[in-house]
């Protein structure tokens, strides 16, 4: 039997902003080496969940562990790397300057590591000669690839990517998806990503959790969820599940 290590454990996660309860019971586990998707419509609570897991939001109720630690401790230990949804490279710097800037930040004075991180990031970004151009001259897809390279350059234990392909055209989104699956396989990075695109998640993720209205509805492989609901695809499974929980 294959031994699976639990990297993320979320049990009955709840979060209030003022009087409003935004997360009302989120449950899921992510295992080592998976590409795991949090999927749900706008406002479901995906970003809030990821911000808690990345150690940015520190007040919440319930159990949240990353590699057996609090998210904050895991982040400080360099185990987590987080890519927020609305993040961009520095326009005035070239691609390579952007990567070097972050590599120096992450390597904390270790020159060998700086070069190693930059080399890894160049491969992930896969921008060819354009890596020498200013980021202001990049397309949206190129910028996103640079940011993903920045996020993954240290080969973290857990990479948290908030809507990595949002606002990308079909071809750029496919390219970014390939990058994510490649790096997960090659570097053994566990990836936790959010999306409201069920078809994308079905293609990309080993397992998913569906959330709506701050609650997790079901968790499993896309095929398990589709079979369980007796439908054709994840989108239909989500709609059917939502109807069932509302009746
Ligand atoms: N800092 C905050 N203060 C108050 N309410 C917030 C805050 N952050 C998020 N919310 C609310 O929490 C709910 C969930 O937001 P969240 O961004 O987590 O959803 P999401 O699933 O990521 O949505 P989207 O797909 O649109 O990005 C929304 O109703 C949002 O308005």
From TrEMBL:
PROSITE patterns: ABC_TRANSPORTER_2
Pfam families (alphabetical): ABC_tran
InterPro entries for the chain: AAA+_ATPase (IPR003593), ABC_transporter-like_ATP-bd (IPR003439), P-loop_NTPase (IPR027417)
Keywords recorded for this protein, A-Z: ATP-binding, Nucleotide-binding
Protein name (database record): ATP-binding cassette domain-containing protein
Organism: Sulfuracidifex metallicus DSM 6482 = JCM 9184
One Gene Ontology MF term: ATP hydrolysis activity
ABC transporter domain sequence ranges: 8-238
Domain of life: Archaea
């Amino acid at each position: 039997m294959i031994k699976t290590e639990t990297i993320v454990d979320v049990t009955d996660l709840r979060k209030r902003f003022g009087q409003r309860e935004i997360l009302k019971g989120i449950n899921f586990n992510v295992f080592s080496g998976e590409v795991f998707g949090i999927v749900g419509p706008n406002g479901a609570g995906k970003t809030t969940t990821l911000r808690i897991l990345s150690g940015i939001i520190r007040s919440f109720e319930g159990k949240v562990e990353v590699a057996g630690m609090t998210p904050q401790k895991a982040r400080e230990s360099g185990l987590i790397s987080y890519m927020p949804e609305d993040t961009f490279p520095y326009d005035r710097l070239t691609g390579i300057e952007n990567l070097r800037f972050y590599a120096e930040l992450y390597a904390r004075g270790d020159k060998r590591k700086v070069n190693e991180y930059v080399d890894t990031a160049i491969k992930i970004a896969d921008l060819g000669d354009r890596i020498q151009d200013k980021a202001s001259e990049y397309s949206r897809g190129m910028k996103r690839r640079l940011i993903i390279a920045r996020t993954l350059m240290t080969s973290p234990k857990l990479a948290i990517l908030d809507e990595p392909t949002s606002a990308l055209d079909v071809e750029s989104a496919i390219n970014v998806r390939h990058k994510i699956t490649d790096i997960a396989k090659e570097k053994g990075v566990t990836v936790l990503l959010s999306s409201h695109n069920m078809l994308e998640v079905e293609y990309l993720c080993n397992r998913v959790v569906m959330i709506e209205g701050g609650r997790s509805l079901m968790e499993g492989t896309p095929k398990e969820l589709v079979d369980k609901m007796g439908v054709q695809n994840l989108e239909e499974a989500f709609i059917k599940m939502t109807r069932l929980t509302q009746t």
